Amino acid sequence: MKNNSESAAKSLKREEMVKFAFDTFYKNGFHATGVDTVMEGTGISKRTLYKHFGSKEGLILATIDYYRTNMLEIILGYINSNPNAQPVDKMLRIFDFLIEKAEEGHYNGCFVMNAKTEYTNKGTEIEASCDQYTAGIQQLIEATLKEGNILDYNELAVQIMMLFEGAIIRSKVTRSANTMRLAKNAARMLCEYK
Question: Which of 1, 48, 75, 140 fits 44 for a cystine, CB–CB 3.0-4.6 Å?
Answer without folding.
Answer: 48
